[in-house]
Amino acid sequence: MGRAGRKTQTDETTRRCIATGEVQPCKGLIRFVLSPDGVVTPDLAERLPGRGMWVSAERSALELAIKKNLFSRAAKARATVPDGLLELLEQLLVQRLVDLISLARRGGNAICGFEKTKGALISEAALVLLQSNDGSESQKRKLRPPNGQNTYISCLTAAELGLAFGRDYVIHAALVGGGLTKSVKRDAARLAGLRGRDAITEAKQPDEPAVKG
Question: Where are the beta strands (DSSP E) in the chain?
Answer without folding.
Answer: 14-16, 23-25, 29-34, 40-42, 53-56, 110-112, 128-131, 152-153, 172-175, 200-201
